[in-house]
Amino acid sequence: MMNLIFSLRYFITGTTILPKNRKIPAGITGIMAFIAIVLSVPLFAQDPAVLIDEAKALERKYKEEEALSKYKEAYSIQPSNIVAAIKCSELCGNMGQRADGSIRISAWMNEAMAFADASLKIDSNNAAARTAKALAYRNLAETEVKKDKSTEYLRQWKLWSEKALEADSSFSRAQYLLGRWHLELLTQGGIRKAQGKILYGGLPDGDIEMAIKLMEQCRDAEPYYCANFLDLAKAYNYQHSYAKAIQTLERLAKLPTRRQDDVAIKAEGAQLLLKLQ
Length: 277
Fold this sequence. Notes:
It is globular, with a radius of gyration of 26 Å. It has helices at 2-13, 26-40, 48-60, 64-77, 82-98, 102-122, 127-143, 147-167, 172-187, 190-200, 208-221, 226-238, 242-254, 260-276. It is built from 14 helices and no strands. Helix 3 (48-60) runs antiparallel to helix 4 (64-77), helix 7 (127-143) runs antiparallel to helix 8 and helix 9 (172-187) runs antiparallel to helix 11.
């Protein structure tokens, strides 16, 4: 017993009063190593709700990478936390959109998809989880260079957007994503649509009226979502409703900048507004 006391004192303070020539028994060194591990682990894991609040605060400061770390920590502590899983998927996708190099982009997009799948495992009927899956496919469709893969991602983007609206017909982010899908088919999807006809029996046609209807619904439900305002303005422009496009872009310029991507979105909106005025 005395050997254990002397040994612990040596371990903690670096000093001992062991008599000369007395060695620390081998068994006690194992106990000391175990105590070191125990002492290095916090007694209480941080509350996932607190971590999520901290992550949201970091997002408002445009520090998405730091926010992502907080969301990941919350998810690792509580794997049943669907909010953490969905936010991890969203922010991984954002990182991929801003990344350089195909390897890094692919890694981020695959991680975004993995977290979307994780959220669906928690609740497969959750509209936000289904929207996360749609968003992950949208990001893949927009960054994939191989036409056959991007066409399939485009199909899945539409499918999961519709599934999200089946779960909640008023879910604004799903409304935006499906509206954005229609606009994509009309403005950027010609080559992929032709490729899809060969590989998959064809893709549905984009519908500008449906695109506008869905994004207007999102605008009414979520009046500060910058991405929706920019794409709604693009849809009006495509329809040649120039007055509505200008009005929407002017509203976009006045919206608060709440997300890191909002800076680039508003800058693109300002450039389009100059062309239309």
